[in-house]
Structure formats: structure tokens, C-alpha cells
Amino acid sequence: MTSCEYANIIIDISHEKVDRLFQYRIPDRLKEKIDVGSPVEVPFGRGNTLRKGYVMELTDEANWEPSKIKEILNIPADSESAEEISIKLAAWMKKYYGSTMIAALKTVLPVTKKQNKQVHKFVSLRMNLREATEYYHECVSKKQKARERIMAELLATPDERIPYELITGKLHVTAATLKSLSDKGIIRIDEEEYFRKPVAGDSSRYGTKELSPEQKEIVDSFVSDYDTGKRDTYLIHGITGSGKTEVYIALIDEIIKRGRQAIVLIPEIALTYQTLMRFYRHFGDRVSVMNSSLSPGEKYDQMERARTGDIDIIIGPRSALFTPFPNTGIIIIDEEHESTYKSESMPKFHARETAIELAKLVPGGASVVLGSATPSLESYYRAEKGQYHLFELKRRLTGGTLPQVEIADLREELRSGNRSIFSRRLQELMEDRLSKGEQAMLFINRRGLAGFVSCRSCGYVFKCPHCDVSLSEHRGGRLVCHYCGYEQPLTKICPKCGSKYVSSFRAGTQQIEDEVKKFWPGARTLRMDADTTRTKGSYDKILSAFAAKEADVLVGTQMIVKGHDFPDVTLVGILAADMSLYASDYRASERTFQLLTQAAGRAGRGEKPGNVVIQTYEPEHYSIQTAKNQDYEAFYEEEIAYRDLLRYPPISHMMSVQIMSYDEELGMQFANRLRAIMEQNKKDGAIFIGPASAAIGKINDVYRMAVYVKMDDYQGLIEYKDMLEKYIRGLEDEGKLKKISVQFDFDPVNGF
Ligand code: ADP
Ligand code: ZN
Ligand code: ZN
What we know:
Blueprint (H helix, E strand, L loop, with lengths): L5 E5 L11 E4 L2 H4 L7 E6 L4 E11 L22 H16 L3 H8 L10 E7 L3 H13 L3 H12 L5 E2 H6 L5 H9 L3 E7 L19 H15 L5 E6 L5 H14 L3 E5 L7 H11 L3 E3 L6 H12 L5 E4 L11 E7 L16 H11 L5 E6 L4 H8 L4 E5 L10 E6 H6 L8 H13 L2 E5 L9 E3 L16 E3 L3 E3 L6 E3 L12 E3 L4 H11 L5 E4 L9 H10 L5 E4 L12 E6 L3 H4 L6 H13 L10 E6 L5 H7 L3 H15 L6 E9 L2 H17 L6 E13 L2 E10 L2 H20 L6 E7 L6
Parallel strand pairs: 8-13, 8-14, 9-11, 9-12, 10-11, 12-13, 15-25, 16-23, 16-24, 22-23, 24-25
Antiparallel strand pairs: 1-2, 1-4, 3-4, 5-6, 5-7, 17-21, 18-19, 19-20, 26-28, 26-29, 27-28
Helix pairs in contact: 2-3, 2-12, 4-5, 8-9, 19-20, 20-21
């Protein structure tokens, strides 16, 4: 499959050494069979010992004296080691998303920095219940919040040991506090070496709940498929609280009984103390958690435990997908619609697609289970087409009433003279809740760089006539489309109603917090946004503080709407639902629907009923209407029709060719060049758009622009990518590509 003369090969498969390549000649008889990623046998070193290596690059250029380059001996028979699977997966990622083989390998291979043996620490209660309860009340009255939090958790399950990291990490109790509690004889901190295998049956210490008929049907259907050898992708569509996590636990039980392992992906931001404890309670030490705050040594340790069979389950964000289990049986992706499942660096892979590919590669095959209250358009579309198996969980098992959702029309507010950022209805409800000592969350939808311009009187939004996405305000009073580059001057008068209230919407969390303090001087506020969560642990700290009722109002960005249960929150205000609606990319409506649905789900989780107020300039928009009615299917029908009309994914596929350059003009010329190359090789059904300046036109003095190609056939896009990669590599080899870099993004999820 290659016409190249030479192959650059890695011999040591490790994250650290993938850059060390050795060049070999490809004998003619093997040219048919060799491709990037292929395993090969080569003579290595002075003694020419036979070693196994993998092809990373193919080239016609000899790195030194051609007569001295050794020849590849053979292609070994297919083996299925964990290593082999990683390499195959990397080769697939390289092909499917575009990147170098080395970058792809670095993504899938875990780091191998050894560290000293770790001990596992657990915290448990040392006092009897009566004394502990007394001490808890003492902490409450002394306002010792951290102590109060940990005592509350320990008292809730007095016979249990809680992993130490969970308390420091997720409950945000410092090591010093724990030591002091231990010194006083209130808690016990036990140390144990890792790698302790629990006795058989130990993992069912905390029995599974009796599943509801709907839950049971999912598990039975999965198990029956599994046992007849059928491997599939399943989508569980169920609102928060409908019992998805309980189903995951039951499925994992079944998989472990069959001697295989489970990978559970949960976006880091949604991985709460409560969720982790449910897994620990059920599986004990057989489960391990990965997160971004682990050191390389700790990560290595986790990977070793997986490799050697000391754990059966790993829970973590996107990168946990590459856990080297000997025999993965199930990959679960919770909140599968989350944009964090798409990598933002090369290769820009999506965890969902990559999981499905990995599931095919593991020996015997694995199944993939996706779960969400608001499935991505991709997954639901595939489920509709029968590519995924769809399950619905329609009932909330937690009790609690669904919140009452109202829409506040901001155009109305302006007309009646209310210029504050709070609608009258929201003000009224805020006062009511503050007077009752209940909690409120105020959420500003800042997703997707809202530079859109609208009329505050009638709600009109300036949009691109070609792409149906919002135009963004740029310097010099221009309105620009980030897909096709269309421009128009910014007018001060609304073209629809003639009012002069045309402006871009700008309000930040800081401003909202200030306004809250102005309106309700007695209210205690907490703020959560990119600024206040910069330091390690600050995110969990704010949430813990709010859960402990250290504040009345939590103001924040979309971070505050993920996965947390606050029983005393009875009011959620969504201040500018439109912000994400008019982000300048085709997923704007989908994201808005997801965010509004999630935010609304925050109210009324406890006994008390909740209210939600959605403030918007465009109350009729289907994202807002369907979110108000909590009607996913209705949203899906509208949205898929829009994607169909404009050939956006998942109906079609889209490749974004992203160009970065210190020189704006040079970058633009190059972008036009790339478009021309593709157009000269026009394929059926390909639609070219751009080049245009990216949504973020410049970062750190580097200009960013993109060309887009839409095509029904993904393979066609891959061919375009290969064509451009080849052209770019040619220029690089000649030293002609200076000050410019290019990346590819397939079916983009995150704006560029
Ligand atoms: P989701 O993951 O969909 O948000 P969970 O699995 O967390 O839902 O379930 C929500 C709540 O309902 C949890 O408190 C859980 O313990 C409880 N629950 C789930 N399944 C059952 C069941 N079959 N019987 C009783 N309670 C259940
Ligand atoms: Zn207007
Ligand atoms: Zn456009």
C-alpha cells in the first residue's frame, strides 16, 4: 500500500521514546502490505538482533548513505497485545482526524514515568455515633465549615472508609484539617498498600438497588446481546435522576462477572463526590479514578494497576479511554453530548467515535454505552437510523417535582422601562427565596464567544445570509461571518423595527454579582467562572461551600449547571439565554438547548418545588421553547431539519482546515491556496466555504483563519486532508513553510 522506499520505525513503544525513529528500506515484496502503523520485524543494532517495530512514517528520502540502510525483514503475523491495539488505534486516529503518527501515538500511549510505591489512605470515624454527632454540632455552631462537611459525610455512612483523596479533592478538606481531626481521636486514617485484591464477593458488599422495570430491560437486553456475541453501541436517553448511573453499575457488574473490564468516561466537571462514592461503595478497591490533577507518577501507577489486573474499572475524563486493560468489555460515556469529549489539540479526536473504534479493536470486541439527558444530535440521529440501539428512561426516580419553567421576554422589560439585568419576575422570585432562606443560582450563558449583535427592542439578530449563523462584531464597526467571511457594516438602526437599541450583548459574572449586591444588599454571594476557578481545587471548594449553605446566591457560567445536587436551590435564573444561541457556529442551538435543560434541572432537586426563569430576547426560538417544555424530541426534529437544510453534521460531514500565521496576509494567501488545491480536485458533492477569519481571529499575535469543506462522504474529506497534508509536507521538506501551521478538525464541536 505504499510506493515509498523507506520506513521510519519505532522500536521501543513508549510515550517518551516515540520520537526516536530508525530508518529501514522497504523491500519490494512488502510494499503491498506496509502502511503507517504496520508492525514489522527488523534487524536491530550491531548484532542485528531481531526486533519488532512499528512504522511511523513513510518517505522516499534517505536519512543517510542509502547503501547502509538495513532492510525490513518481515511483517509478523497479527498479534493482539495491548500495545498492538494502541498502535492500531493511533493509526486510525491519524487517518480519521489528521495528525502525525507520533502525535497520535503520544495520545494513546500512557506515560511511563515510574514512581515509588503508593499507599492508599482511607478515612473513617473513630468515635461512637453519639460523640461524633455532638462534635458535628460543635463544628456547626463554631462555623467550622470544612469540619462540618467531612463530619456530615462520615455520619451519613458511619461504617464506611472513605478514600482520602476523595475528601481532600472533592470535599475540599485540607490535609492539615484531617491530621488535626485524627490527632484529636475523632477520625482514623488508615494506610494500606495499593494492589490489595478484595476477597471474592467483597465487591457486592453494597448490593445493587432493585432495578425498575425500565432499568432492568436495558440490562437484560444488553446482557442477552453480549452473551450471544453481539457487540453494539447503546444510547440511554434519560433525564437526570432517571437512574442511568444505577444502570451503568449493573452493566459493569455483569461485565466483571464475565472476566472483563470497564472504562467509564465522565466529564471531569461532572464527576462529583456523590457519584464517586457510589462506585466506591459498590466496587470497593477494584475501581480507580483518573483526573487531570494527578501527577505523571500517579497516572503511571493507575495504568500499571489496570495493566496488571489489579483494578477492573477506571473512571475518568477523555484520556481514561486509553487505559491499557487486558480485556476491556464495556466503555461507558456519561453525558455523551459534552464538548469536552472532543480533543482540542491534534489529533482532534472525539472520545465517542474513538471508543467505538477501540471497542472493535479489543480482542473479542467491547460494547459502548452512551448516556445523556440531552443526547448529541449525532448520537440521536444514529439511534434513529438504527446504528445505535436506543433506550429511554422516562421517569425520575428521586421523587421531587419537576420545576416550573417560565420565560421572561426582555423586549417586554425594556418596553415597560425596566433596564436592569433582572426581569421583574426574577426580582420577585429572588426576594421571595431570600426571605425564606432558600438558595438561588444565577447563570449566564457565556458559551461560545458571544460577539453577536442584536436589537434589544425587537430581538432581531444580525446573521450571515449564506450560513445562517450569527455575525460577530469586529473592530472598525464590521459584522463578520466566521464560516464564509461575509461582511457588512454595523448599522446603528435595527433593520426590522427601526429602533436604535442595536448593540452587542456584554455582561459578565462580575457585573451580575455586583448587581445582586446592589439589589439585595444582605444576600451572600459566591461566584464561579474562569477567573475564580483558576487555582487547583477552587472549583470543588466553591461548590462545597455553596452546598454547605455558606452563600445564598451562586452566580456563574455554564460551570455551575453540571451534575450537582443542591437540595435547597429553589430558583434558577438564566440571565441571557441568547448568549449561546447566537454563538457563531452551527452547534449554537444545540448547546443552548443542552445548557438550558441542564440549568433548569438544577431547581427543585429536593423536597421543595423549584422555579426557573429564562430571560431572553427571542422567546419564540425553538431551543428556548423546547427547553422550557423539557421536550427533547421536539428540539431534535427542529434542529435536524436545520442541519439538513444547510448540510451541517450529522447529516453531512464537515472538515475545518485551520491555518495559523504570524502574518495575516500570508496566512490568508495560504488558506486560499489550500482551497484552490482542493477545488482543482473537485469531488462530487463537496462544498467549499471560506477562508474566513476564525471566531477568535488572533491569539498571542498569531492570526487564525479557516477553510471549511462540507461533504456527505467522510472518506472524501479524508482524501482532501491527505492531499493537503502531502502538499504541506512537501513545502516543509523544502523549508518553504515558514510562519504558518495547519491543523484539521473533523465535524468540529468547539468553535475555532
Ligand atoms: P442518573 O444517573 O440518570 O442521574 P441515578 O442513577 O443517579 O440517575 O439515579 C437517581 C437517583 O435514584 C439516585 O439517588 C439513585 O440512587 C436512585 N435510584 C436509581 N435507580 C434506583 C432504583 N432502581 N431504585 C431506587 N432508587 C434508585
Ligand atoms: Zn429591532
Ligand atoms: Zn457565512
